[in-house]
Amino acid sequence: MARGPSAYDDGMPAAAFFDLDKTIIARSSALAFSRPFQAGGLISRRAVLRSAYAHFVYLVGGADHDQMEKMRQFMSQLVAGWDVATVREIVAETLHTVVDPLVYDEAVTLIEEHHAAGREVVIVSTSGTEVVEPIGRLLGADTVVATRLEEVDGRYTGGIAYYAYGEEKAAAARRLAAERGWDLAECYAYSDSITDVPLLAAVGHPHAVNPDRDLRRAAVARGWPVLTFAKPVALRSRISPARPTLAALAVGGAVAVGGLVWASARRRRPEPA
Hints:
By secondary structure, the protein is an alpha/beta fold.
């Protein structure tokens, strides 16, 4: 059984790196907003069904490099030309409903324990900053590293300005450690995906969370702890009053979209048939 975060607390500067999808939240943030975007007239029913199927495949089989590339291409094609302001408006209106029930209680507990041990918490996600950043603020994360979508004249182009995926997650962790004086040997990392092996291998205390088959195999071979998170909890029941609530974030307009959509939104238009 893995020791808790406080068991390693020796006063050294360090951080805990968390993947988002299936590690902190119980589903793909990249696909979670498909129905709100349909309701807002941005995508068709067919696109919603395709998103639901992609999410099913992701949950059942994990996401290897080929699956992630297919998802990236699908999302890029879907959102090209979408109006950024419209996307942010829809996400701000729906984030509470979409995200609040999906957060794992076990992940929230770990975040709290790492903070109590004096470690900074970093969310490192392939999903878009528009969703990851507000979730990070809600959870009290100190830093967010996420994919940034390319924008021109207030619209998403379908391109990616920065792709937080695979080896780049490990590179981001090393950059942050150099900038902030963290000792990576004293740092933690948590992820569900084989594509995050570089990030997990970069720290002294890696953990596989709800791992896909390939990551489970790699974790067993390397002696990494394997954790099971299975208890989604309403965030409002876990966040202390001193921290901002989802509703406050939405009202403040600090949120935007993330992942699924990986991107972006065209002006509102009549819902496609």
